[in-house]
């Protein structure tokens, strides 16, 4: 209940500045769990991604530092986020999202960190989780306001989804993983360029 209250309230607040234009939402799988791997340049994209697929919920992988204060830890739990230690990821970094995906849930990951250039390589978390869970990755790109001050510029936000990416069963595992990483990187760049 708290997730929906927070999500719909955020949607109302963000829409005051400019409504989100969602492109190719039909690309999202209609059944089964999947990963959404989205570009990330600020905190606004996290909020817009979450409200863009309501009433479907997204379970966000979030940095462990956000769970260190009791009140924030409680809130993150209610918002269906789970912690990951980015410096020293442990077994739970794979175990928790695998269970969520097996249960048909959606996992949201930002594989680019907060990179601002295309030359910075993607982090491997999304592909690693997809490999272990045999779940598809849906690439997504956001272009629009990145922070609080950007919202007051009333810049139009756009979010675009791409075709799901799956592990190629005909390739050796290492080659298939490398190809999946390459496909995801190309898809994110292509999607971002299409809505700039």
UniProtKB/TrEMBL annotation:
InterPro entries named in the record: AGP_acyltrans, Plipid/glycerol_acylTrfase
Entry GO MF terms: 1-acylglycerol-3-phosphate O-acyltransferase activity
Catalytic activity: a 1-acyl-sn-glycero-3-phosphate + an acyl-CoA = a 1,2-diacyl-sn-glycero-3-phosphate + CoA
Domain of life according to the entry: Bacteria
Root EC class: transferase
Sorted UniProt keywords: Acyltransferase, Lipid biosynthesis, Lipid metabolism, Phospholipid biosynthesis, Phospholipid metabolism, Transferase
GO biological process: phosphatidic acid biosynthetic process
One GO cellular component term: membrane
Keyword Transferase: yes
SMART domains (alphabetical): PlsC (SM00563)
UniProt domain Phospholipid/glycerol acyltransferase: residue ranges: 34-145
Enzyme Commission number(s): 2.3.1.51
Record text about domains: The HXXXXD motif is essential for acyltransferase activity and may constitute the binding site for the phosphate moiety of the glycerol-3-phosphate.
Family, similarity comment: Belongs to the 1-acyl-sn-glycerol-3-phosphate acyltransferase family.
Protein name as annotated: 1-acyl-sn-glycerol-3-phosphate acyltransferase
Species for this entry: Ornithinibacillus sp. 4-3
């Amino acid at each position: 209940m708290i997730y929906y209250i927070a999500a719909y309230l955020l949607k109302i607040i963000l829409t005051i500045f400019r409504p989100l234009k969602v492109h190719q939402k039909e690309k999202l799988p209609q059944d089964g769990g999947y990963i959404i791997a989205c570009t990330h340049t600020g905190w606004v994209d996290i909020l817009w991604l979450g409200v863009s697929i309501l009433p479907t919920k997204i379970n966000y992988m979030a940095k462990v530092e956000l769970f260190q204060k009791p009140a924030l830890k409680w809130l993150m739990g209610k918002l269906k986020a789970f912690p990951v230690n980015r410096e020293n990821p442990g077994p739970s970094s794979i175990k928790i999202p695998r269970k969520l995906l097996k249960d048909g849930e959606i996992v949201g990951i930002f594989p680019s960190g907060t990179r601002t250039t295309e030359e910075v390589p993607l982090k491997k978390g999304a592909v690693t989780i997809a490999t272990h869970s045999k779940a598809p990755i849906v690439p997504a790109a956001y272009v629009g306001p990145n922070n609080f001050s950007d919202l007051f510029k009333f810049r139009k936000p756009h979010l675009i989804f791409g075709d799901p990416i799956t592990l190629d069963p005909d390739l050796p595992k290492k080659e298939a993983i490398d190809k999946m990483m390459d496909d995801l990187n190309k898809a994110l760049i292509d999607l971002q360029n299409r809505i700039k």
